[in-house]
What does this fold into?
Amino acid sequence: MNDVLPLDFLTTMTLLPIVGAAVVFIIPRGRERLARWTALIISLVVMVMAIGVFYDVQANPPGAGEWAFEAQAEWFPQINASWHVGVDGLSATMILLTGLLVPLAILISFEIKDRVQTHMALFLFLETGLLGVFVALDMMIFFVFWEIGLVPMYFLIYLWGGENRRYAANKFFLYTMAGSLGLLLATQLVGLTVESFDIPVMLDMWPRYLMRGGEILGVDVSIVKYYALLGFTIAFLIKIPAWPFHTWLPDAHTEAPTAGSMLLAGVLLKLGAYGFLRLAIPLFPKEWIIERQLFSLSYNLVDILGFLAMAGIVLGALGAWGQNDFKRLVAYSSVNHMGFVVLGLAVAALMYGTVWAEANNQYGLLAGVAGVDGYQDMTSTQLTDAVELVYPAELRESDRQDARVALNGAVLQMFNHGLSSAGMFLLAGAIYHKAHTRDLRRFGGLWPLVPVYGAALIFVSMASLGLPGLNGFVGEFLVVSGSFKAYPVYVLLSMAGLLVTGIYILKGIQKLLHGPLNEEWAEYHRTQHSLEIERREVIALAPLMALMLITGLYPNWVLGVINDSVMRFLGG
Amino acid sequence: MDVNWFSADYLPWLIMLFPLLGFLVIVLGTNRSVIVSQAVALAGIGIAWLLSMLLFVKTVWVTDKTLGHDVFGSQLDWLKLGTQTFRVGVLVDPLTAYMLLMVPLVCLLIFVYSLGYMRGDRYNARFFAYLSLFSGAMLTLVVADNLLLLFIGWEVMGFCSYSLIGFWFHKKSAMEAGVKAFMTTRVADVLMLVGIGYLFVEARTLNFRDILYSEEMLKMLVEKDAILFGGSVAALVSVLLIIGTIGKSAQFPLHTWLPDAMEGPTPVSAMIHAAAMVSAGVYMIVRMFPLLSAGADFHHFDYNTPMLLMGIIGSVTALGAAVLALGQSDIKRILAYSTISQLGYMVAALGIGAWVAAAFHLINHAFFKALLFMASGSVIHAMEHGEHNAHERGHGHDHHEEPDGLIMDYCAPPNDVQRMGGLIHRIPVTAITMAVGGLSLAGFPLITAGFWSKDEIIAEAWHGMSEHPFPLFVLLLLLVTAGLTAFYTARMWFLAFWGKPRTPAAQYAGFGSLRKGWVVWWNQRRWSDGYKLVQEPITRRDKLSANQMEAPLAVLAFFAITAGFIGIHADLIGKNPLHDFLGGTLLEHPEAIPFNFAPMLVSMILAVGGLTLGWWVYGRRPLAAGQTDPTEAALGPGIWAMLQNRFYIDILYRRYLLRPAEWFAENIVIQAIDKETIDGVLETIAETFTWLGEAFKRFNTVVIDGTIDGLCAALYRFAGWFRQTQTGRVQQYLLLATLGLLAIGTLFLIQVR
It folds into this structure.
């Protein structure tokens, strides 16, 4: 362990933006152009590094228990926290996404004329926060970066947002802080109990800690673990955002500046899902799947997660349908799309639990999952026999393969949603920036005025809708396919949501582009401000569109890396 | 890897690639030039057609019995999923080859036709780009070797039809029709997606060969219980796939989008109704038939749920749509219902196990329906022209309001057969080719393609009717449909082309055809002012457009006759090449049922009878201007209105499904749940904290501040007293300081503990 902070690759990549932020911040007033380009170039350098990380992980996937680019240094020995970073396929994918989206967002925020230095600095600051979460292998570092990401976004909304920005910024901040509070407490609890904040150590020790019962701080361990799980989960559910923790999102998105929305939807929402996969699921394999009683009704937490996913898909879609504000519509679509991620997570959690139970000889758990009657009173031999009868190994393996499919889909959906929601917000912002309204009822018939914008909008909308051949479809298909056997009813109900996805996407296209030529806007377009998409916006959008098409036609370029990490997670 | 792209294994990739490439080139590059874009699109589909022909020849070259088992194809890794790798590829077996005979050819003809039809349209380049994508997607679907790639083509076509139906996006009705088509088919598609997904996790593959040609796999799927609804896995998957077809091929109850799909330009209708889209739905169930029929022994009249579903849905749709076609005045809408009806035939055919007949009818129908639609397009073109001419000759422009959105019983004047009449003298090429198409649709005996394929379906149903009530049911419905089809086809043709023109527009209708010497001569003898029209200068461009529209009709008319001759029953001419060739696709070569003269006679009688009745009513004494349509008179106003309003199904959906859902989204989801409940709870929490803060503030002012104020006063008095201690002696100060420190220290210690 080194004594000083090592400048390894990941640390450099993570801290480069914040150094850049400092540089951009002190660029004097009047040199806005310089500030913009400096920020862009720094983010491009980070992008190249992120691509490097991704391809290196693709070429040399880390084996079980290993981490690519791993580095560790002394940081806060008093509380057993260290500067520990490293990546696997999952974080490499998310880093790639972050690295790609930040330069595009910065390019879009070239349109900001007010306090440019601060604005650009905040974006770079935000990038450090995001990358930090994805590289962290230490819980304290994870938490610090988790919170760091919050601050710049708050200011971006608060200072450069729309009319209702104060309400939105405060709501965003309080909502997320409320989640963070639980996260902090749960983190401390776990970290102090296992006497380490190192994530691999925690993942190894905490699930097995007092596995057969006992007390922590005088409270029964199952209750402690239950509340710790809630602490993690609620924080992550808010961030995703899963239904019913989603109401901060429409406000924050609607009021945020375009580039802010792009990153908010594109990357920030992924933090929640990432947290699930890195922490909330592997820390609590047992707690997710153990059978619980509520008024003689037995349930487990995974099923509730599945239900929330379905509710998010259906109600998110319906919510989007009912909007007349274009950005609000797109914001609700995030709830809808991230619902599929949550559905995949639920199946993954279920199967992760069974893998863990099997490895730790917890046949009672397996019996609960398999639905063996009266398993509580069985001896361990009886349990093993009953499980092998009802839920034999080949069936477990088959279900695990389904869960791998679903989890591949969920992670791919995270990546895809990052691309398409960023694209949608870019386009929603592009028209808002020029027309100064987002009210869909006032538009219509714009396509003859904005042929390029129209074509781009249709393309990105179709990607968002999940049109096969574009990226969104592959993820959705895999999630639907992999979760159908675990949650057939939820999946069928979710299909209603997928149907409504079509309605709201078409509503957006129709209300903007179709219909008789809108004289009001034609006049505006001629005399005041062209509504057509600008060259800079096209440059920012083109890479996204290219990736949507490439991922749709040949998903294996990213899925290979994702699958490696899925196999780490649900292998065996 | 050494790849010979022109070997039959790799050719399918190229076949689907070229039209898609055409789309990309137009969108990204040439969209500013109409001519270049058209050339690119034409080149794309032209090359695809040539390659398809090459491939077709290669497949026929292989002795026909072996291709079913050793298919052509190649694959690549597409997805890595856990421990397995999902591969995507192409496949050429006899069924694919048969489809490749039709799809690229009809697409190519539609492209050529569009050159003329879309002349002068502002968005020509965009139109050809969409058409290229459309045909590329259909070709992808046809050559796919697995359900997922098929589904990709399937959905891209859905997008294309949405865009093309709503191509004239400034018209509200077109825009609504596009959305309606997309959403109605999507209802089915999301369920089909579940079916595919479920099949994938049960079978661990979606490859056609691995699923459909493996008895073990089919057995496993039939024997395993499904996760929902009780039946077997195979049954659940089959039903979900059939729902996909119900949407795509516009079967009841999801048929409502197709009649409105004619809002798009007519070549699009031809594309949707013939070459692609609706054909894709039937193609998919033809392709998946071994799975759909798994577990059923239909040769011995033992049917399973999916087959019963297909049979009932298909035959009910066939009959219902035929009845609706009777009550339409819009020429394209009559054809649209006839498509629904004919697709019903194919679906019903699969229901009773008539696999070869279904595929046979699919191809034949595509030829004659493409012909009929394009001919109707030229009729409409001629009528629009006629309206323009009539207006110029002072006949008054009867002004009609564009409807605000989709109106069920609205009929655009140029499409209205009641306003036509006598058009055979104005556009004879169209009239004659349309007659050929119509005869094929009606199943005119022996010489038309439609007869042979329809007859085969009816014969199969006839074969089982005495054994099982199900084929009897299908047979009865299909027979009634056959009679109705012949009648409404005759009605349409005679109303449009026969008799005297009923409106000035019809009188002056026409386009380039009038240049032809024999037409001039004919017209001279009939109507003098028709002759005068010819004196108009017709530009070379006009002539070209007319040729571009008429040449495809002639080609299709040829196929509408001859495409049936390859599938005549072996007992009649000694060999049934189609049956031999196509049958090799299935694992077990389907046995042809013995030839029976009775059903053939019945279907002949019905076809000829229906046509004769049509001639009796509409041909013998053509409808005069202002006269009520005899069908309308015979049916009475109530039934007529019901037919015009399409059995009120659309209204029902709108009123009882769409509106409530929209209301639910706006009022319950957004308002009641999100705003009032969730945000309400949060705001209550926030308000509680605010209130608590207020309370603390109050506590501050009253208690603490009060205390402090009191303390201050006390302090003041104390200070007065304390001043006396200011003695100036250092010792006393030190003592006080020490005491103070001690006090603070004690306090601090207590605190820390």
Remarks:
- The radius of gyration of chain A is 24 Å.
- Chain A has a mean pLDDT of 89.
- Strands of chain A lie at 68-76, 81-87, 215-216, 219-220, 292-294, 297-299.
